[in-house]
Predict the 3D structure of the following.
Amino acid sequence: MPASAQRGKLAYKILLWFLVISLIPMGVAGLYLINISQASLHQQILGTEKSLAESFAETVYKYIATYRDILEESAALPQFVSGNKEEERSYLKRLMSLHVAILELSVLDSSGHETIREGRFLGPNPQLRDMESEGFFDTALARGEFIGGLKRFQGIYPTVTIAVSIGSAKSGQTPLGVLAAKISLNGLSSMLSMEFPPSSQTSAAVAAPDGFLIAHSDPEKVYKPDARLNSEILKILTTQVADSGGGEITLSDGKNFLSAYADVNGLDWIVYVQESIQAAYHTAAKMRSQILRLLVWVIIAIIVLSLAVSRHITQPLRALKDAARKVGMGQFEDFPDVLTTNDEIGDLAQAFLSMSESLKEKTGELVDTKQELERLNRTLEKRVEARTRELKAAQEELIKKERLAAIGQMASVVGHEIRNPLAVINNSIYFIKTKLASVLAQDPKVSKHVKIIESEIQQANGIINEILTYSRQRELQPETVRLNDWLEELLSVYPFPSHITVQKIFVPSNPPVEIDLTEMQQALRNLIGNAIEVMPEKGILGVKTFLSQSNMAAIEISDTGPGIPPETLEKIFAPFFTTKARGTGLGLAVVKKVIDRHGGRVEVASVVGRGTIFRLHIPISKKVEA
């Protein structure tokens, strides 16, 4: 059969596969419908909450206005206008018995002095007060009424002060006084709790602009000394321009609410209604859950159908894939059965088998070539590595020999050509001092120059000693000593300047060490001398001993000098390296050489501006000093 007649079957199979999985848009459409319903529910809930907030704002206003009207009607009665105290007191008691929310009533004259005071929790003869300085008194006289002064009665129950003028202040007549009442606001919380019970998942509150919680659908939240509206919610409400509105609020603790608010007319109070997002969208969530369950069953059905379809399509492809994996691993035998169906997959299988035969031949050639190259590379690497080690060892040995040769020649020159003249100069200075003793006593300049010559001779001798010490090769002459005792003896004879303070901290065990006393003394003197040089005016030189390891003792020399820069620190033990204007640069090199010869190690730590610490670790002797 011609090859063209076998084409196209795989395309129909793929098309069938895509038709099966095209049911996925059903899920997209379902989610889209959920989002639409949730948006509609969002608007509906906000509208309901806004309506409730506005309605209760009107209720709050009427609640307050009712007591204001009662007080205005009372203040206009003849007994208040005439000033008959007995009739006024009798009326106030009757008024309180009719209205439970009135906690306290007061009659004030035009000067602000209480003439009558009645209250539910007052004694028979309560103390009368001067209320002239209270803000409500002036406002009630000037405008005829006052509503405000929110406080908590007995520190718990919210109350508001309502005051009206006795006489008609609004008509321009001079008021005779003020009738004031302290009204309980517990009734507002009771109305809210009936309107918004806990089971409704909706809560409401009435608050003042400063956060004072006036009423709440959960009264327990109001009856607290410090009951206030949530600061985040209050900030949002007080920044609104419109008298009413609503929207979604997210608090810092992650809680989300659908909320609405409305201002109470004339009172500057705010009614706030909220419902959690979870409760508000409960219906939408339930719908989403049902749709998701339906989608799960649809997906299960699609998976079952897909497995049935894909088994027929992908079985030959899997066999071809396994064969390709073996070819990739270099295995050209034991191929799985590759079905040569009469479609595009069959053509691919035939092409793959032909390709694998060709690759088998080429791979064999490449493997042989690779093995030969690897053998040659290994041989070359071994030769290069051996030659590199030989060259490195030869270079290090050559540098070492050249350095030692240079130092030896220098030491020879210094020993024979400089020390003898220095000795002659020193003897001559001594002779001059004995002959010119009287002149030296009378002429300070001559004495000063003689001392300069002696100092320079000592400096030159010191340089010679450093060079000879570093270049000299002699056998160690170790002796077993107690470390602390040896250091005490060394420090006791060292000429410390007066501006240097020596601090000693010695380990109590006083470990025994086996050292060459001459070389170790030179090393310690070099470190102490360097420390004194970097503290020319004032400083502390620390000498400390401690056990650094199980078989090592340490000597620590510290100073409070300027410290050593990091770029210099790694070079300080190199021979002839120095940062001083005068010196050989062998002081620390001698220290390292001495410690190395004793089988120890040298550590240095320095902080610029704070000082430097040298630690000399030397082995503890197994012998005990007699």
